[in-house]
Design brief:
Blueprint: H1 2-5, E1 31-32, E2 37-41, E3 48-56, E4 58-60, E5 67-70, E6 75-80, E7 86-91, E8 97-102, E9 106-112, E10 118-123, E11 126-128, E12 132-140, E13 146-152, E14 156-166, E15 173-181, E16 187-194, E17 209-216, E18 222-223, E19 228-229, E20 234-239, E21 247-252, E22 256-260, E23 263-265, E24 267-270, E25 274-279, E26 285-294, E27 305-311, E28 319-324, E29 333-335, E30 340-346, E31 355-359, E32 364-367, E33 380-384, E34 395-404, E35 407-408, E36 416-421, E37 425-431, E38 438-444, H2 450-454, H3 456-459, E39 464-469, E40 479-484, E41 490-496, E42 500-504, E43 511-519, E44 522-530
Parallel strand pairs: 1-9, 11-17, 19-27, 29-36
Antiparallel strand pairs: 2-7, 3-6, 3-8, 4-7, 5-6, 8-9, 10-12, 12-15, 13-16, 14-15, 16-17, 18-20, 20-25, 21-24, 21-26, 22-23, 22-25, 26-27, 28-30, 30-33, 31-34, 32-33, 34-35, 34-36, 37-38, 37-39, 38-42, 40-41, 40-43, 43-44
Signal peptide: 1-22
Domain Secretion system C-terminal sorting: 431-530
Protein name: T9SS type A sorting domain-containing protein
Length: 531
Amino acid sequence: MKNFLSFFVITFLLSFSYSSFAQIVLPDYDNVCPDQEIEYTVQSSYYGDGQEFYVHNGVFIVADSLYQSTNDSTHIVMDITPNTNTFKVRWGNDGSLGGIYLNDNQSYECNIYNSYYSFLWSADTVVLTGPQSFYIEIKVYNADVNNTITNNSSNIVSVNEVKITSIPGSNDAIYRYRCDITGSDSGWVKFITSGPASQNCPSITSNVIRVDVSRKLHAPTLSFSGCLLCNDEDKTFSINSDPNAEDYTWSVSNGLKISVGENLYSTYTTSSTNVTIKAQTTTPGTETISVKSNGGNNYEDSDTQSAEIWHGKPNPDQIIYYNVGPNYPAQYEICIDFPNDGKALYDNSCASVLEYQWDALDWNIIQHPMDPFPAVNMQDVQITAPGYGYSIGDRVYFTIRARNRCGWGEWKYPKLELEAVNCNMYMMTVSPNPADSYINVSFADSELSTEEQSGESSINQIVSSKKVRKSKTGVMEEYLVQILDKNGTVRKSVHSKAMNLNIDTHDLEPGTYFLHLNWNNEVVKQQLIIQ
């Protein structure tokens, strides 16, 4: 009979005069109040054993003696007879709709008036140890209600409402609270909401919302000397001690090992605040050391703190040709009639490159005369064609390698391929720099002499030289020289066709300026110091 009854249509209806099922369950209600208790009568055609009832947004309040079996208060099983054909439901306030369901099949739904309640919207419930500020957000489903803090743990010294935000398109709202906590113990804050009576329903108060605040350890701070590790070296890594930490877990990437006595580990947990790291590969590259503080049962573990180091010699794949020739990388050309600039960069500062070595067969490559005392030798170079053997259109092949204290790395391949061209350029020089009362801008058809490039008599006068491509006619055309301050304001502006131009600077305040040469559809820029 139980299976037979499960196919029947039965519902407890809440409609008044307009409900077609008003005769099935009495009394009928379309609208109920939160916490209201209502008795429902099952229609005789649905009598039978083992009838299952469910309630949404409410609880059954039937005597236990009437249950065939007892489950939670939102699900009961009853034998329905003429003597046991009623039950009561206490409606809740978890939303605006409620319902009763028979055998997972039939349903009756009602509208719950005065449905205001709250729940935890978002909160910083995990807070770092020590004195901290954090925020809790409570969402209420009716902007007319009041949200109230009932109490909180003693280590939460203040809870202040800082903002009430309405939610577009609804009558809901979010309460936001700033909380201050001291010490390192966990804590809690409790809230309730209450609102006015409406629709003949009394005012009710929501269930207490408790926000538990757990504590989390701070991420340790890694310290070590330098970030380069050679194959034959050990390196010690240390962290600050955390009195709340139970221990610390260290881990390293594949090319490294943690050395403990005669044993090597990839991951190691210890109470020590320092470990020794060894290299385990001859392949150069970036490696990672990580560590976190473990909180045990009292605290959440800290975030993992990581550091990268470079292991071994420089890797040629990470050498970048920043500039080679007049227009690299826009054009792959090299001048055979004029000195060329060259510059290399390494894409990892931890590799600690000390110098570069360039190779282009018989081309002359020297430390750039404008940078005679470099931090990294041969990073900036001057490249000059040999006196014979190269013509316009020939291919010139460059390669480069780098050295750190671990040794020389491999040569970079494939080689950089450039086309030999006649650049037909002027060399622009600016002197003196720093300047006082004047500067001289000059243009030359040929390369600077050796004395001009590196002699002590001129090194303080000529700070830099810039290459400027000639016009198609080869005739010096009108150009514009502007001096701009650090704010981009033009302080001097001079038009000229002269190969040598003297500009008065005595009226400029001491400081850093920028000289812009506008000529032949290009702009050449040079920093200028006025003292």
